[in-house]
Amino acid sequence: METQAQAFTFDQFKDEYYDPSLYRYDNTATGIATFDDVTDEHINYYKENGFLVVQNAFPQDSVKSWLDAIHHLIDGNNPDFTGVQYEGSLNKGQTTSPVNKREGVRKLNNFVEFDPRLKTLSDDNILLSIISKMIGSDPELFVSQAFLKPSGIGREKPWHQDHAFFDVPIGTPIASCWIALDKATRDNGCMHVKPGTHNEGPTPHFVQRDFQICDTHLDLTRDVMVPLNPGGILFFDGMLHHGTPANRSSTQRRAMTLTYIPKETHRISSEERLSHFGGEDAGDVTC
Question: Which of 144, 192, 207, 221 is the most exposed place for a label (fewest CB within 10 A)?
Answer without folding.
Answer: 221
